[in-house]
Amino acid sequence: QEKPCRLSAALLGGDCEISQDQLYELLKYAALGKCHNAAQPSWCRVYHQSHLAGVVVVVLHEMSQVHFYRFYLQFKHLRKVFQHRFTLTPSTNFLTSLYGEGTDLRPQNPAQGLPSTSSECVTKSSDLQCDPIIRRYGEKKRGLTSYTLTLEEQKKNDYPIKGSPGCKDYVSTECDQQRTDSSPLFGLDCEMCLTAKGNEVTRVSLVDAQGQCLLNELVKPESTVMNYRTRFSGITKKMLLPVKTRLSDIQTRLKKMLPHDAVLVGHSLNSDLQALEMIHPSVIDTSLLFARDEGRRFKLKFLAKAVLGKEIQCEQKLGHDPTEDARAALELAQFFIEQGPAKVAELNLEMLLTAEKLAEVSQNKAVLQPQGCGVQKQLNEPSCLSKPCFLDCLQVTGQKPLLLGRQGLDSSSLCQSNLSTSNKQILQRALEDVPLSTFSIIQFSLGPEYIASHLYAGLNEKVRSKLTDMLTIYAGPFEESFCLKSVKKEFGRCGPIHSLTVVTETFQPYVRVQYEVLEAAQLAVESLNGAEVAGSCIKVQRPVTAAMLDCDVLIKELELDVENEGVIYVAGLKKSLTETDLQEEFSHLKDLETLFLPKDLQSGKHRNCCFLKFQKSESAVDALEAIKGWTVKGRELRSRNALASGHLWRWIWQMNHSSGKQGKHIFYKQMEQLSDCEQDLRKKMKKLDHHIKKLYRSLQNNTLCVVLFPGVNSTHGSQPGLGLMAIKTDGGRSAC
């Protein structure tokens, strides 16, 4: 039974800034599990990783945390679905650091024109002992039975096995006769579509040892088709409309056609047999036969060209031809058996593949050079990372990871990368191709006209200004001789105060209070407006500016933000209280999951407030009722729903403790330039949010989706990034 995957991340507190290495750590574990030295990330936990359907990373190119909060109301889907968020340390080489590529594929010896492989002995025909094919099979020729997969190898590579869990209703071919080196070979290949059930067969091809086609049949899936995968399968809705053949019909025909000692040959044949829901005891898998180091696999298209000199899966054709693929796999197995491992090893397939990659990279550089994009620079520079490339390891699954975007995203050709001219095109390709890949990186971008440094500075200043206004309240009027100390004490009960000043420009004195957290300012407006403070009945309000006209809407949306679900804010605490003290005080509150006690990031001293996160939203509501009129160590507590998460709290603190001053002339020029395009930016952000919503809804259940605002790290300054993550579950909700 499929277990629901879920995420757990201790990101409520202020220390939730995640480095590129930590992000890489998460993606590697989510994609590979415990294989290839992948371990649970240190800062979050993925439960039931083996049940993940895939990993999708959406990169919003050249955007930062500032963009998310400046256009917070436009990102309606992001804030309602992605509960786990973190500040992301910006990187100068973001995409490379993202997928951890450490392979330099440029020629090591220009005179030779080809790079040396990781082991020099592979390049010498006189010494083949280092070749993985020789290490596995030896140098001598053998019969075909030496190359069929053992039962253990079949189990390891997810072949359907009689009696295995999940194979209860599978049909056996009943080919149970003893195999000999004279047993007949049959090439098999299937094309699949994505249905509500998963992968279902839409076409089956079987060829005999002479390459004659014995079966080439369209099959009607049992469940509703979600994606025909036409680009790869060549299957369309129109083609399947008149089809009456069902999977059971194909199973019956295959049982009749195959002799009792038949050996099936295919490339990643486990996928075909799983889709056919059939069990066959004797198979040769060409993706494993042509062995590589570290569990990597050659693609069928490459092997057909390098070994047989044949071009298959041509881009001019609509989809793959299963008969062509079945015949190619069969001929590859026959070549291996007839020529022997030594001859195959002498082909230097690794070197041929590297040369092919170099040619692709060179071609991509020539095509992309006029664009002058930032990513292009990455293609021209060697990577200095020492981390292994886990995208290469992912080829164990039999398919390349997918990269889609406007720029050239992959410098090593380890991925299926595709260039598009618009975000709409990227989305369409993603909807088609993401279900076919276990790991995808989709990059959307605003366009070069929206990434100028002065626009970043202008956006940053606008967000800073709005947050400052939201943290600020004005209270009054007071009597001329009012006690400032008692005013500070009363307003301090709402939360930590950053600054308090007396306003003297008015007929009667007012005070301006700037808080350190949004909840404190909102609590002051809600609880002290109309109250008697320092002998005066006062009015409490935020500044009235054009930017603050939608403040009430923004506060409401922050409360409804999925990240604040089940989280409450409590103020009026003594600063001397520790987390242990508070855990004891609040221990009787039902379903309390986490307690976060903010600290001054410079002095390390506790503030007079805390955040409580509950497992259920109803428990948070009950806690708010219970805390009303509650006193701790003689102090009355005040509480409300949370508005700002840990990463935003940290950002506000940094904003309050940095001057952010610049020349007035520069500032006004930036504001003028930004105002000209900000309306367009709002529309673009709303469109991006809609694209991500559409993509997210198309994902299979148990898919980890990570949305990244990478941040900016350039000579013009640095802007932190933002990460949002969720695991898709039934109904489009995220699993936490």
TrEMBL record:
Organism (species): Scytalopus superciliaris
Record-given protein name: REXO5 exonuclease
Segments crossing the lipid bilayer: none
Recorded name of the encoding gene: Rexo5
Keywords attached to this entry: Exonuclease, Hydrolase, Nuclease, RNA-binding
Taxonomic lineage from the root: Eukaryota, Metazoa, Chordata, Craniata, Vertebrata
Matching SUPFAM superfamilies: Ribonuclease H-like, RNA-binding domain, RBD
Domain RRM stretches: 471-545, 566-644
GO terms for cellular component: nucleus
An MF annotation (GO) of this entry: RNA binding
Domain of life of the native organism: Eukaryota
